[in-house]
Each structure stands twice: as structure tokens, then as C-alpha cells.
Amino acid sequence: MFTGIITGLGQITDIRPLGADASHGVRLSVSAPAGYLRDALLGDSIAINGACMTVTSLDEARSAFTVDVSAESLARTAGLAATGPVNLEKALRAHDRLGGHLVSGHVDGIGAVIAFDPVGESWRLRIRAPQALGRFLAYKGSITVNGVSLTVNDVADEPAGTAFSINLIPHTVQHTTLGTLKAGHRVNLEVDLIARYVERMLSAAAPVAQVAQVELAAPVAPVVPPASDGSGAAR
Q1: Which of 33, 80, 37, 81 lies closest to 55, judged by CA?
Q2: Tens digit of pLDDT for each residue in 74-94?
């Protein structure tokens, strides 16, 4: 689990195919800030642009690590198939502060940046999400964009998908890769975990209610007391 609070800016420095055809994934070499991997271990989870990956090799002296990314993950994420800067977050520990919101590191869909414009001292980022994710987006709800926990400021359902806006303060722009976004860029989206469970419970509520009504409507056989011979003992 993660919180969506980026703890370091990394760089994908090398990409090596794990096989000869498209069914194979790739091995990414990632550099991290100095000292970032001091408490990391082989097999740990690190979110890269919001996608949870497993550390397959570790070089603390060079502050670098590798992860293997499957072809499935490459097809369902953005920003992992090319060298360049990436957002990093190490997995949440039980005693850590939950500064953002609960993030699983499982990308739900890929959004497209519509606009990224300055507004006062902040920036307004507008993204179009796939229609299937629209029902999970709500005003003042949480959304993860490239691994960053953000608050939804408005939502608009459109024929091509669901457009939503978020406000970025200067600190977020400076300490994440979001400051490099431009219209047309693709971004990884993860919807709020709680919203996902609520949607599932609501969609399953009708069949459960019907089953309960059937059980209540079923006739109940009367309880017949055992016959007595008058002595108080049952026969």
C-alpha cells in the first residue's frame, strides 16, 4: 500500500527487453536520489509513476535499482516504456503517516491531459478519464495521477469520457513530475479505493435484497408440542 505522497524523483535510465517478441516485458533500471534506498531491500515494493513494482536488484552505493515490468503492465500504464523522470514512493509502513489517501499502486486506467494552465500561484490540471472510471470520481474526492494523491475540484461527464480538474500548488509542481505535463500527455490514474468498494457494494445490493425477501416470504412450519399422558411427561 501507498499514500500518494511522492518521496523521491527518480529517472528511468535504461530499458532492456526480457524477450524477443511483444509478449515479453522489460527490465527497467531506475536511479533514485542519494540515500533513498538506504532502508530498501530486495523484493520491496516501490511505486513508479503510481504503478507498484518489485525491486529485483539493488545497488545502494549507486542509489539505483531494477524492476521487471510485464507486457500486461506496459499495455495498461503510461510512462514506463521510455527513459525519463518518474515519481517514486516506497511502500507504506504500519507506523507511517497517511498523508494522502490509501493507494494500492494498481493503475485503473490511462487519462489524457486536456489542459495545464497557471492560475494565480497555482496550476490547474484538467484530465479526461475513461468513461468506465467516471462513476468513481466525485467533487472533493481523491484521485491518484502518476502516483500523486490529489483532490478533485470539478467533474463533468462527456461523450468521450469524464473530465475533471485538480489544483496543484507550487510544492507539488516542483517536487513531482506533474510540472512537466502538457496537453495530450497520457497519465496513470487510480481511483479512490473506498469508492471502488462502495460501488461494488451498491451494485451487489439489489440481488442480496431480493434473496432476503424470498427467505422472509418462505412459509414457516408451526411448532407442534409433543403429546402428554397427563402426568406431565411427554410421550
Answers
A1: 37
A2: 999 999 999 999 999 999 988
